[in-house]
Structures are given as C-alpha cells and as structure tokens.
Write a structure and sequence with these properties.
Blueprint lengths: L15 H8 L3 H13 L3 E4 L2 E5 L7 H16 L4 H11 L1
Antiparallel strand pairs: 1-2
Helix pairs in contact: 1-2
C-alpha cells in the first residue's frame, strides 16, 4: 500500500492493538509485521510512539500494471507465489 501510493509519507498507522482488533488477529502477528516493515525501511517505529510511513519511492504505475498482469496469469496457470517469483527472477 505504501509503494503503490495508498499510504503516504508521515501517515500514522493504527496501534498494534487497534489493527489486531480490526483484523481479528493476534497482536503478536501485527507486531511482527510492523517489525518487518520497519526492518525494510517502510515504516518508522519507536517505543511509545505511533508507527508512521517513511518516505518510499512509489512504484511507477506501468510497472504496477505489468506486475498485476503477470500475477493474474501466474495464478491462472496455478503457479505458487514462490514459483512465480522464481520465474521472474530467472528472467532478470
């Protein structure tokens, strides 16, 4: 959502507890996701303050459309995400 521009630099994310309640999942799952996003440089987190989106270069719309087309075709063929990713990497 960040890379395609649905969330923007500085946007505040829900608290771990709030998002877990909204999605009806364990808070630990949300905390792990937030940690992974922070490790990837997508969000900024800190003890006692809200997680916020960091400035991330958006993916160009033509690339988003191409990726959607590829993903749709891979799903149609019954490919797993790993297989689709590996096939794409092999072309790089």
């Amino acid at each position: 959502m960040v890379r395609v521009g649905a969330l923007h630099d500085g946007d505040r994310l829900p608290s771990v507890r709030q998002l877990a309640d909204d999605l009806r999942i364990a808070p630990g799952t949300v905390a792990k996701a937030y940690t992974e996003l922070a490790d990837c440089g997508i969000i900024d987190t800190g003890a006692g303050r809200a997680a916020r989106v960091k400035r991330v270069k958006p993916i160009p719309e033509p690339l988003v459309r191409a990726a959607k087309t590829y993903a749709d075709e891979a799903r149609r063929l019954g490919a797993s995400l790993d297989d689709a990713f590996n096939a794409l990497c092999a072309q790089w």
